[in-house]
Amino acid sequence: MNKKTWAITGSSGYLGSALSDHLENRGHRVKRLTRHQVALTDAKLSSLHFQGADILVHAAHDFRPRKLPDLLRINCDGSKRIFQAAKAAGVSRILFISSVSAFEGCESIYGRCKLMTEKIAAQASAQVIRPGLIFGGKDGSAYGRVKKLMSLRIPILPLIDQGRAKIDLVHLDFLLTRIEDLGLSEPVQSNPIYATTETLSFLELLQRLEKKTFFKTVWINFPYSAGIGFLRFFERLGIRLPFWSDQLVSLLKTNPIHDK
To answer: What residues make up the domain containing 231?
Structure first.
């Protein structure tokens, strides 16, 4: 196998750290770029961070801003600087980790931010990858939050729109191998590449996690608008719940039409 040097942004995060470990175990050299080295807010980002890298995987995302203008300013502008710095350093292949929440007409702030960054990535001739809800390994991200909520064995929980929303999932191991393959051999495709391994309804996902707790939860159904409005009401009061409203929108409102 042709060994390469990979630069990974967001390397201290759930996906970035797992990808870095995977690539090193496969014999590649990895430049682990954390937010302390390559910050999305760094207006004077140096290309030296990417010097010697053959492939960049941009997996960093700043979730802290809650308003779209702030999210775009930090993530989109920051991503553009990262792509430019990588190009200046001679990186020949760029992969951008987006999300199935990103598509034209998407409702979530997160999805709109990712979609805008996809367009910036395309200008840098980057390959866009849209993973589903990632599970496996340390179970980070939104899946991990749902899993943790179910492990609390709360007797009664709200269910949005009868749990009918379709959730695309991707196992971490599959995604890591897919990213490696895309970085090494496959030509850049103009359309985003989806990475999913199965599709469940939201209720089926919850029931799967429920079985692992050996505890039966009673679900109280809420219409979608009422459930999201309920979360936003508490957010305005400054009360933190297990999910932000936009996190739930991103989870439940993914691309309805895509090629797997």
So the answer is: 5-252
- Residue 209 corresponds to which tokens in the numbers above? 């996690």
Query: CATH number for the domain including 113?
Result: 3.40.50.720
- Residue 184 belongs to a domain: yes
Chain segment 199-226, per-residue pLDDT in tens: 999 999 999 999 988 889 999 999 999 9
- 259 part of a folded domain: no
User: 230 lies in a domain?
Assistant: yes
DSSP type of residue 37: T
Residue 24 dihedral angles phi and psi, to the nearest 5°? -65, -40
- Asked if residue 258 is part of any domain, the answer here is no
Q: Which pLDDT belongs to residue 257? A: 58
**3-state class of 128 per DSSP?**
strand
Q: Which of 22, 33, 4, 11 is nearest to 175 (CA)?
A: 22
Reduce the DSSP state of residue 171 to 3 states and report it: strand
Q: Please, are residues 7 and 86 in contact by the beta-carbon 8 Å criterion? A: yes
* Domains in the chain, number: 1
**214 CB contacts (<8 Å, ≥6 apart)?**
none
Diameter over CA atoms, the chain: 56
The DSSP code sequence of 57-78 is EE--------SHHHHIIIIIHH
DSSP designation for 213: H
